Amino acid sequence: MSHKQFKGHLTRRTALGTLAGLAATIALSGCGSSDEGASGVAPADINGPPEKPNLKLGFIKLTDMAPLAIALEKGYFVEEGLNVTLEPQANWKVLLDGVIGGQLDGAHMLAGQPLAATIGYGTQANLIAPLSLDLNGNAITLSNRVWDMIKDDLPRQPDGNPVHPISASHLRSVVDSFEAQGRPFNMGMVFPVSTHNYELRYWLAAGGLNPGFYTDGDVSGLIDAEVNLSVTPPPQMPATLEAGTIEGYCVGEPWNQQAVAMGIGVPVITDDEIWNDNPEKVLGFREDFATNYPATMAAILRAVIKAQQWLDADSGANRQEAVEILSRPNYVGADADVIAASMTGQFTFEPGDTRPAEGFNIFFDKYAGYPFYSDAVWYLTQMRRWGQIAEDKTDAWYFETAEKVYRPDLYLAAANALVEAGTIEQADLPETDGFRDPQNGFIDGVTYNGRQPNSYLASFDIGLKQGQRVTASGVS
After folding, report:
1. Could you give the CA distance from residue 202 to residue 194 in angstroms, rounded to a whole number?
2. In what order do the strands lie in the sheet containing 281-286?
């Protein structure tokens, strides 16, 4: 078997080294430090039968939980000696508490949740993310009322449909109109440390609208806000929009397509147009789960990686079957047609405007499962940008925090076993030190370099600058 060298760029320079023979060297000296949760696992630990074969994993009713459903329905968990129950959760807070409290062994989790918990934002717990579940998968939807207020000003394609991506700058006149009437302009997202919150904030700020800042310990984020963002669980988004409580939202599928099907809203931008190929969800666990059950951890990851591969195999040939599975009430429970509207290589913005979207949900291709440190750093920069991290941090702090939480050592221990078995190819694993190359593809044209978090933060017109703090009276 061929092997890879992974060289550390972090302050505590590390090397995963040669990963032949099912990660014999992933007893590593640290993809995090050996004393901070990345002590690694010995080959004997991960080759044996699962120490805890009976597992309960949580999820939220979104199409990006698909790898878990497929791992169960296609028998991949059973192949790895696991008896898994998948349990839907009421909201992201309940899911998080379930993992922390041990009622859930792990969960389909927002990428920001294990990071926020580890740094003590909202709650404190040592969580890890050994696998990224997908790339892309969200959209921003506006109410029909707001869409009617902006649609005539949008540039049009020859077919009469709007040119994409649509900038949030088109909302300026709407927000000003609401303000003149003494009314807040309200939008929804799913959780304070969700991808959706940061994507919605990114889109608004790129269009010149301030989505507000968080004070230390605050979870409302309304300081200096021109657009007020509030939390609504994903399945409740369409009903909340229909009730007029919010004028738009950012959520994962199928709840944007549900608004189209109900005729109550219009998706205006998908998240791959905000940040192309952004990481969306992770598989999250308590840190001590991986320490106590190394063979179980490896078995879970192998099963999920196989499910991710199945979802993207043969240019999406299995997606229609996946849609049928996800439509079942014990999983997402939305109509199959609604799920298919975004998961089978297309995305419907409004009747008559369905566009190709082959990369809207990516589960395996483009190294979607690998938990890149630079992805973790991006989420941390957004927490600092909007005040959830109250004070400046050094670049080294961002790197060290990413190392604690994102665990490519565990991912590679499982993935290389699948390479050994011939299940996946060596080329399916990235040649990387854990950082992506500088990324373009953001709607504001800013390049993201995960090795320079503070320089990245300084590049934004809207967002906290070096030395700034947020108080109840504003930014100082």
Report:
1. 12
2. 83-88, 54-59, 106-110, 281-286, 127-132
Tokens of 101: 């409290």
Asked whether 95 and 109 are in contact (CB, 8 A), the reply is: yes
Is residue 38's pLDDT more than 80?
no
| Antiparallel, parallel or unpaired: β 186-189 and 228-231 | parallel
Confidence of residue 358 (pLDDT cuts 50, 70, 90): confident
Kindly report, residue by residue over 373-383, the tens digit of the pLDDT: 999 999 999 99
Residue range(s) of every CATH 3.40.190.10 domain in the chain = 20-132+286-346+358-428, 138-278
For residue 109, the surrounding DSSP H or E stretch is: strand 106-110
Ramachandran assignment for 352, one of left (phi > 0), alpha (psi -120 to 50 degrees), beta (any other): left
Backbone torsions φ then ψ of 326, nearest 5 degrees = -65, -30
CATH superfamily of the 138-278 domain? Periplasmic binding protein-like II (3.40.190.10)
Q: Residue holding tokens 């000696």?
A: 81
Residues with Cβ within 8 Å of 80's Cβ and at least 6 positions away in sequence, in order, are: 50, 299, 300, 302, 303
Under a CB-based contact definition with an 8 Å cutoff, are residues 424 and 418 in contact? yes
- DSSP 3-state assignment of 148? helix
pLDDT tens, 51-77?
A: 999 999 999 999 999 999 999 999 999
Residue 219 confidence class, pLDDT cut points 50, 70, 90:
confident
Structure tokens at 106: 């792990």
Q: Of 149, 224, 227, 231, which is closest to residue 190 (Cα–Cα)? A: 231
Q: b/e map of 234-268 (b: 16 or more CB within 10 Å)?
A: bbbbbebbbeeebbbbbbbbbbbbbbbbeebbbbb
The pLDDT tens digits of the residues spanning 156-207 come to 999 999 999 999 999 999 999 999 999 999 999 999 999 999 999 999 999 9
pLDDT band at 46 (very low <50, low <70, confident <90, very high): confident
Contact 194, 157 (CB under 8 A): no
Residue 398 and residue 453: Cα distance in Å, rounded? 7
Helix (H) or strand (E) holding 203: helix 195-206
CATH superfamily of 20-132+286-346+358-428: Periplasmic binding protein-like II (3.40.190.10)
Strand, coil or helix: 221: coil
